[in-house]
Amino acid sequence: MSAFQWLNEQFSFFGLPVYWSDFLGNILALATVWLALRRSLVAWPVQILGSVFLLIASLNVHLGGNAARQVVIIVSAAWGWATWKRSREQEGTINVRWANWNERGVLIAAMVLGTAAFGGLLKWTDASFYPGAPWWMVLADAWIFIGSILAMYSQARRYIEFWFVWLAVDLVGVPLAIHSELYFSGIVYGIFFVMVLMGIRDWASRSKPQGIASPLEPAVQVESRDESRSN
């Protein structure tokens, strides 16, 4: 373990004390979001490695919910990697779509019930922040855990809504990371916010039904009909 002790050491990042584990994990997390935006399979192994670093960082500052989140992300990323790989083999690309209302209802119910249940578990076991931490802090920690699971699930299912779930996680993650003195995580959450907006726009533009023609398609169709008649 001594060979990896440096991951729990701090360095100065523009005057802010930053753990190496927090720094490296979040750099890889940023790379993951960028690769997901490009719908690249490489996003998944990069996410797994980044989560290993962030797991170390979370344990270092006693964030039980966030640490558990990283373990689940690692497992979910392995499943998502296999899902995307199978999809690309079958369809030739990674197609994305909006979830239907039933699927959205399941996601919303899981958000509310999952956060409440996991928050209660963290509170009961004193596994979040410190013994006797206020409910709002514990629920924030729990939401980041549950929200990340749902985002990973939605990403693996190729729902465009996964970007919105990450957006909700980021809105809680920024103040929580800063409060926990994971300053670099707070900065990265802010960058995530911008990248998530880019992801929503990009994936939404790719979700248009294939039957909707572009302005150039009618001319192409006319040319093909003319060629068939001449033959």
UniProtKB/TrEMBL annotation:
One of its GO terms (molecular function) is nicotinamide riboside transmembrane transporter activity. GO terms for cellular component: plasma membrane. It is found in: Cell membrane. Keywords: Cell membrane, Membrane, Transmembrane, Transmembrane helix, Transport. The keyword Transmembrane applies. InterPro entries: NMN_transpt_PnuC (IPR006419). It is a multi-pass membrane protein. The chain crosses the membrane at residues 18-37, 42-61, 67-84, 105-122, 134-153, 160-177, 183-200. The keyword Cell wall biogenesis/degradation does not apply. It comes from the Bacteria. PANTHER family: NICOTINAMIDE RIBOSIDE TRANSPORTER PNUC (PTHR36122). Belongs to the nicotinamide ribonucleoside (NR) uptake permease (TC 4.B.1) family. This is Membrane protein. It comes from Kitasatospora cheerisanensis KCTC 2395.
